[in-house]
Write a structure and sequence with these properties.
Elements: H1 11-23, E1 36-38, E2 45-46, E3 50-57, E4 60-65, E5 68-72, E6 78-82, E7 87-91, H2 95-103, E8 108-111, E9 145-153, E10 156-163, H3 166-175, H4 185-193, E11 197-203, E12 228-233, E13 236-242, E14 257-258, E15 261-268, E16 272-274, E17 282-287, H5 288-296, E18 301-304, H6 313-322, H7 326-349, H8 356-370, H9 376-401, E19 405-412, H10 415-420, E20 425-427, E21 454-456, H11 461-469, H12 474-503
Length: 504
């Protein structure tokens, strides 16, 4: 099988990838595709929560979506407007779970009650190309359509389009087997008048034998059973684009049937709320320093049936490993660092909206799609490479993250508000009294349940002292502390006696 020509892929990288393919147990290449069943089916509709991550700083915005849908496979597709052409990248499927873990880290639970086992740990990009060849330009402006970029991103075929009208956009999408939703011409034409472009997305969701989308594919329904449909979330996509104002173009989503409950994770300078959306939908706000602590610090420890001194030394090393936050929120850490670094670089040179490791990952995706690879094994490989390549970014950018605020907005967005205007934002600081997991735990989208035991958020200082002065006992350490305090008081008492004597 001929390997795709990828200029920036090194020989070592390709060989490692081939070795990986040869040694892993073959995963279902449809492992990341919603499950298929044959039944009566229905028109495509949203299902479950619509979760959106939004970042904005230095005139650069980034947002990530992983929509949930139910309906007929041959109706699947997305159309998203943007003020400027975006850089597009695939994001790990667990990105929103990891963002939630960054807000409310899962706990490592140690149960010391008799006849109980140790509980497990809880919680548990590419660039924008030039104008493509063959761009269609007609005599009338309203019939104009220009293809700015076409590429395959994971399981998707993506086209970035500049259209002169909704009619021209629909015509191109119909001819190229993209699904153009009905009833939204008015909104689309409004975006056209503003000079916005559109990202058209389609995917092939099918049985294992026919679910191998390749660059340049143009067939949405490859001989599937009549009435085939799916339920679940599709692969996540990230978009990064230039804009003077923070705006989330969600208007076209109002034309999808189904629930309108949205959860928006907004990373910006200063606390925010969504204009025209009730203030009580702002359920959490975390300052950058608290976010850094959650991303870098050990996971909280909950001890049931005892205290830390009751934990045998033989178990403490294993607990330390379980408290490593990387596998629970490393994706979120990489996401925040990449967006901050990309905005910083773009502000300096106005060159590219994509980072080197994001471009490299897209090339690996092309190799994976060439071999029909999808699923948790391959996704973990790409995720680990991306995390390794972005680790140094976090150190460089942590000072910038400290200036940011992560706001969580959760609620049933009024359909008419979403349909009539892009989401815009105002400054807003929520009441401190309800800004905690007690009222809204991000992992469960609601109040945290009551828990028993002792919660330790950071490393126990007693334990650190034991490591430093072992085998000195705790009473001895306490006695040293008292003596030290007494020695501090001696000069003060001597000075006081001197003053009394002078006054006498």
């Amino acid at each position: 099988m001929k390997l795709p020509k990828l200029k920036s892929l090194t020989f070592v990288t390709v060989m490692l990838l081939v070795m990986f393919l040869c040694h892993i147990v073959p995963a279902d290449p449809c492992g990341m595709v919603p499950p298929i069943y044959t039944g009566p089916g229905s028109a495509i509709a949203r299902t479950g929560l619509q979760q959106t991550y939004v970042f904005f700083d230095r005139d650069v915005e980034s947002f990530v979506i992983r929509p949930g849908f139910t309906g007929k496979v041959d109706n699947f597709g997305m159309l998203i407007p943007f003020p400027t052409p975006p850089a597009i990248r695939k994001v790990p499927d667990n990105v929103f779970l990891q963002i939630k873990n960054a807000i409310d880290p899962p706990e490592v639970v140690v149960d010391l009650r008799p006849v109980r086992m140790l509980a497990p740990a809880g919680g548990g990009g590419g660039g924008f190309g030039g104008v493509a060849e063959g761009a269609m330009v007609e005599e009338k402006e309203e019939d104009r359509l220009e293809v700015l970029n076409e590429e395959a991103v994971g399981m998707y075929e993506v086209a970035v389009l500049s259209a002169g009208s909704a009619k021209a956009l629909k015509k191109w999408m119909d001819e190229n087997k993209f699904q153009y939703p009905t009833g939204m011409d008015k909104v689309t034409n409004e975006y056209v008048k503003l000079g916005w472009c559109f990202v058209a997305v389609k995917t092939k969701v099918s049985q294992k034998s026919s679910a191998e989308p390749k660059p340049g594919q143009r067939q949405v329904n490859p001989g599937m059973p009549a009435g085939a449909s799916f339920d679940g979330a599709v692969q996540g996509l990230g978009f990064r684009f230039q804009t003077k104002d923070l705006v989330v173009p969600m208007r076209l989503s109002a034309f999808n049937e189904g629930e309108m409950r949205n959860v928006v994770y907004l990373l910006t300078r200063g606390a925010k709320k969504i204009r025209s959306i009730p203030e009580e939908y702002v359920v959490r706000q975390l300052g950058g320093r608290e976010l850094i602590k959650n991303l870098n610090g050990p996971l909280p420890l909950r001890i049931i049936g005892g205290t830390e001194k009751n934990i045998p030394e033989s178990r403490r090393k294993a607990i330390d490993l379980q408290r490593d936050p990387t596998r629970f929120n490393g994706v979120a850490k990489s996401l925040f660092a990449s967006d901050l670094y990309a905005s910083k670089m773009f502000a300096q040179n106005r060159d590219s909206l994509s980072l080197a490791h994001e471009k490299h990952e897209k090339e690996l995706l092309k190799v994976g799609e060439h071999f029909g690879l999808r699923g948790p094994d391959y996704d973990s490989l790409l995720e680990s490479k991306s995390n390794d390549q972005s680790k140094h970014l976090f150190d460089d950018i942590s000072g910038e993250l400290a200036k940011m605020t992560l706001t969580v907005v959760d609620g049933d967005f009024p359909r008419e508000v979403v349909a009539n205007e892009n989401l815009s934002f105002d400054g807003f600081r929520m009441a401190r009294a309800r800004n905690s997991a007690k009222f809204y735990d991000a992992k469960i989208h609601g109040p945290a349940p009551e828990k028993t035991g002792i919660r330790i958020s950071a490393v126990d200082p007693w334990r650190q002292l034991e490591k430093i002065v072992d085998p000195i006992s705790r009473p001895a350490i306490a006695a040293i502390g008292v003596l030290g305090f007494a020695f501090l008081l001696l000069p003060l008492s001597s000075l006081r006696r001197t003053k009394i004597k002078d006054n006498g």
